[in-house]
């Protein structure tokens, strides 16, 4: 098996520095933001926001670490989260006042310096009542609040984290620079009709674009000046030369078009960095880096001005920078994305509308650089198609076989048709990139949250449809549909299930609309300026500026729901092995006692989804269609304002939400105990997929994948011995080829033994470098909370 060894001493030092940092929180951004909001109070939301970003970029702490080739920092130190009080402060106040800091958690711990806490609380008090969450909660219907408390739906992330799940037009940055963006905004301003409704808002938005673009240019110039100062003091001749080149790079980009590969890497980092500073959203992704950086790479390599290893070193410095980005979430929401994920996706490979392969030399260099760095960022994704080169497939397999969890793998043959099905033009569909975990979007043309809207808990729905809507955990009475003992036939139960899907799908859309309405008050100016056609329309992305605007929530626990309903149909309604009363009582007592265990054993022995058994898999398909049929009836809040579609896709990409959504849900008829994790993504329930990886692929591919534009998620876990000989590795490559030929949406691999993970739980300090695939993202295993760790350990270890 090929080893990927990091050779660069420079990158080793930078990597170790970032890895050694205990995650922190800084009040600096919150201080500067609040100052600007006070000073510019009364101005339009666009102008206030623009001056707030300007204030931050002009006055935040900056530094250049020794050895860095790519410069720019998110906060006062690496792995230190800025404060975003405009989205929500209640959880901050609560955690500080009740726990004293953010380091009390089981996982995703942070620490703010004690001396900053008084100022932190003062800032939070000023924002109380003004935040996105405060405004949304003031209008939230009681029924939605109760559904959120019961966790049949969950939308906290939209109200506390801001937006994200988007890829800006980095190609525009490289070819036109922000100077070109400013000129574009000026030209658009001249066309605005201020005699019609919204005209003045468009003027202010376009003014804001110019303010923020110039502030970003000036931010880069701050680093240019700092690099020059450091160069003047530097005694090492090589480092002095590097600093002087960094000075030149930062003077030119992102203001102007990039002239070299180094400038190109620096330019995309500055843009990505300011987007991370501007908004608290996550899953801001870099898109098809191997495509838009390739012209610069190719030009310099052909001219002999760029050494391949030095280019790799630049990329690895960029990946360390991505890893340094971090954001703090509430304890309750952190469970939905455990392990400090920021979901900064990079996509390589793919095909063209003519069927030609898009893979190039840079695709391989990116793959190698990520494989050697072995950091959780970027979240690397590979696009395959029927004509993908053998070399590319094998190289991806080699990186995955190291046990690193990357790259995630996708096929054009299902994703492109899914996008065409939503009205995406063919040239745009073939230019798709992965975003965040496993979702897709068209770079520079797609609005926010191609996934990441409200979560819908299918496990909780399964519980409540059997209890007439009574939630034993909270004591709340939710939608009444009947008890298990009330249903005379399976058809009665099925009608009750559809009633639940109809009702809670509507509530999830209503919650999305509430969040999106108030998110418009905090427009992301720089990001919008790099989404076509925000400048042309004079609208932010959240107001309808994007060409395409298709969003998706996340549906959690499909396998549990399918297995549960199939078990009830076969054991209770069809074959009369168990009575309704027996199963109902067993569920209410969490399978307690000898009789409860007897009933659970019978339910566990019923065939399960994930084994290529049509009569079971069709339950998963039908259950998902009950949701899809409903969600297709709705539009998002940008409908009628310009973008194409403005509807909903669907997504099995639940990140790590299967853990918190399972741990609030009672026992289910698939044999699952109460308050234990649900099935993850579109994957089978842990430990129930016993017929091998091909059977799993076949079952997952029976889901309505053409509808899943929000992303399909399939995790597979192999022990290392299954890939560590040439013969076994060939079998692994063939699994990937089978995935491609079957037109799978997504697959990813955890290649690590459960024994090793259990050892890491006992001695975390000795296993810091273990990286696992949690859901559609990777995390250091030892940073995860114990429940999520156990969930990963419990997943089926496949045999090839």
UniProtKB/TrEMBL annotation:
Entry GO CC = cytosol
Q: Where is the Glycine radical domain?
A: 680-800
Instruction: Give a yes or no for keyword Kinase in this entry.
Output: no
InterPro entries, sorted: Form_AcTrfase_GR_CS (IPR019777), Gly_radical (IPR001150), GRE (IPR051215), PFL2/GDeHydtase_fam (IPR010098), PFL_dom (IPR004184)
Lyase is among the record's keywords: yes
Signal peptide per UniProt:
none
Which residues carry the post-translational modification Glycine radical, per the record? 776
Picking any one GO molecular function of the record gives: lyase activity
Keywords from UniProt, A to Z, are: Lyase, Organic radical, Pyruvate
Q: Residue limits of the PFL domain? A: 9-673
Q: Which domain of life is it from?
A: Bacteria
Q: What is this protein called?
A: Pyruvate formate-lyase
């Amino acid at each position: 098996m090929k080893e990927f060894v990091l050779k660069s001493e420079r990158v080793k030092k930078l990597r170790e520095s970032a890895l050694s940092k205990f995650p922190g929180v800084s009040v600096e951004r919150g201080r500067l933001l609040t100052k600007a909001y006070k000073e510019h109070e009364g101005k339009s939301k666009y102008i206030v926001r623009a001056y707030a970003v300007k204030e931050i970029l002009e006055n935040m702490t900056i530094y250049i670490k020794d050895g860095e080739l790519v410069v720019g920092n998110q906060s006062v130190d690496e792995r230190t989260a800025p404060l975003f009080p405009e989205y929500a402060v209640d959880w901050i106040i609560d955690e500080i006042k009740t726990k004293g800091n953010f380091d009390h958690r089981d996982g995703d711990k942070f620490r703010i310096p004690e001396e900053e806490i008084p100022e932190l609380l003062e800032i939070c008090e000023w924002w109380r009542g003004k935040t996105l969450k405060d405004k949304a909660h003031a209008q939230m219907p009681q029924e939605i609040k109760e559904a959120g408390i019961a966790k049949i739906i969950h939308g906290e992330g939209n109200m506390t984290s801001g937006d994200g799940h988007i890829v800006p037009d980095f190609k525009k940055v490289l070819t036109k620079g922000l100077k070109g963006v400013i000129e574009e905004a000026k030209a658009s301003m001249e066309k605005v009709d201020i005699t019609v409704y919204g005209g003045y808002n468009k003027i202010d938005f376009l003014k804001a674009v110019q303010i923020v673009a110039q502030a970003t240019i000036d931010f880069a110039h701050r680093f240019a000046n700092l690099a020059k100062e450091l160069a003047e003091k530097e005694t090492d001749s090589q480092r002095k030369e590097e600093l002087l080149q960094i000075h030149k790079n930062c003077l030119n980009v992102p203001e102007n078009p990039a002239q070299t590969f180094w400038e190109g890497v620096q330019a995309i980092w500055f843009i990505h960095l300011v987007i991370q500073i501007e908004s608290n959203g996550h899953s801001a992704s870099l898109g098809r880096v191997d495509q838009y950086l390739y012209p610069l790479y190719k030009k310099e390599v052909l001219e002999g001005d760029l050494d391949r290893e030095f280019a790799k070193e630049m990329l690895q410095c960029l990946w360390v920078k991505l890893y340094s980005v971090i954001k703090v979430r509430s304890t309750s929401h952190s469970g939905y994305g455990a392990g400090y994920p920021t979901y900064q996706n990079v996509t390589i490979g793919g095909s063209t509308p003519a069927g030609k392969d898009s893979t190039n030399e840079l695709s391989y260099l990116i793959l190698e650089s990520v494989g050697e760095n072995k950091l959780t960022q970027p979240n690397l994704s590979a696009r395959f198609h029927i004509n993908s080169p053998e070399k590319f497939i094998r190289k991806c397999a080699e990186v995955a076989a190291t046990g690193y969890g990357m790259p995630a793998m996708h096929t054009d043959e299902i994703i492109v048709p899914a996008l065409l099905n939503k009205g995406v033009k063919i040239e745009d569909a073939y230019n798709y990139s992965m975003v965040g975990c496993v979702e897709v979007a068209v770079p520079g043309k797609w609005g926010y949250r191609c996934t990441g809207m409200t979560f819908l808990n299918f496990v909780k729905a399964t519980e409540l449809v059997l209890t007439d809507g009574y939630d034993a955990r909270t004591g709340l009475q939710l939608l009444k549909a009947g008890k298990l003992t009330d249903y005379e036939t399976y058809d009665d139960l099925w009608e009750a299930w559809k009633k639940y899907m109809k009702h809670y799908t509507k509530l999830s859309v209503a919650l999305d609309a509430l969040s999106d309405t108030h998110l418009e008050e905090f427009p992301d100016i720089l990001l919008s300026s790099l989404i076509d056609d925000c400048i042309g329309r004079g609208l932010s992305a959240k107001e309808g500026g994007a060409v395409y605007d298709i969003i998706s929530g996340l549906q959690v626990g499909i396998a549990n729901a399918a297995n549960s309903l199939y078990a009830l149909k076969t054991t209770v309604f069809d074959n009369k092995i168990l009575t309704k009363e027996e199963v109902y009582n067993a569920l209410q007592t969490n399978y307690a006692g000898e009789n409860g265990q007897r009933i659970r054993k019978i339910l566990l022995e019923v065939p399960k989804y994930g084994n290529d058994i049509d009569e079971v898999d069709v339950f998963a398909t039908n259950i998902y269609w009950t949701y899809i049929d409903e969600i297709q009836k709705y539009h998002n809040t940008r409908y009628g304002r310009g973008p194409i579609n403005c509807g909903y896709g669907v997504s099995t990409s639940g990140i790590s939400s299967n853990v918190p959504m399972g741990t609030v849900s009672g026992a289910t008829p698939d044999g699952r105990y109460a308050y234990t994790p649900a099935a993850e993504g579109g994957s089978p329930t842990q430990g129930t997929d016993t017929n091998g990886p091909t059977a799993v692929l076949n079952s997952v591919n029976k889901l309505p994948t053409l509808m899943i534009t929000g992303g399909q998620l399939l995790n597979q876990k192999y022990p290392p011995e299954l890939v560590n000989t040439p013969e076994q590795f060939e079998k692994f490559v063939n699994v990937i080829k089978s995935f491609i030929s079957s037109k799978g949406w997504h697959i990813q691999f955890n290649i690590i033994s459960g024994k090793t993970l259990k050892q890491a739980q006992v001695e975390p300090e000795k296993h810091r470098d273990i990286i696992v695939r949690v859901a559609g993202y990777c995390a250091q295993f030892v940073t995860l909370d114990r429940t999520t760790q156990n969930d990963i350990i419990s997943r089926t270890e496949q045999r090839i």
